[in-house]
């Protein structure tokens, strides 16, 4: 929660910078809902403003245009889903334990209903608006693979893994974690797997990966 500024009458209000951050956050939340419900092309900036509050002038000042707003939506979702992985802390774990942590976080993204909705949005819009595809691939897909590839390279340097191309290996691991759940969620199915089943699925992917890349 952003800090508040005390007023003389014992009420509180957010300082200008904090108010701006709160307003930006509300617009991104509203835009996520409208983009998912209406699609990118059909989404109305007026509807987003009506849902978030504020004005069109503020939206344009903060995001530039609809494309800039979509960029912010994907960036926010990527930060929420991928930013929780502390790769520095994972250096103190074995590759098996570290990959289990990474795998569980990524798998939670695979079966997230909101992520599935964004994927459906992109499938419908990417041909008409290739820039949206580029935004998603850069901020979400390639970012997650690159982060994992960088971690794998540290393990290669420590001689715990034997990998020739860490980016390809990271792609293999992410692909194994998607399984058939990815397409099921993209088709609108709500996947409610118990935690123990999620762990079992991820562990199998980790074991398969290490079976091919662990140094012997």
From TrEMBL:
Among its keywords, does the record have DNA-binding? yes
Signal peptide residues are none
HTH tetR-type domain: from which residue to which, for each copy?
21-81
Q: Which UniProt keywords apply?
A: DNA-binding
Cite a single Pfam family from the UniProt record.
TetR_C_7
Ranges of the DNA-binding region feature? 44-63
What this protein is called in its record is: Transcriptional regulator
Name the source organism.
Paraglaciecola mesophila KMM 241
- UniProt keyword annotation of DNA-binding present: yes
One of the entry's Gene Ontology molecular-function terms is: transcription cis-regulatory region binding
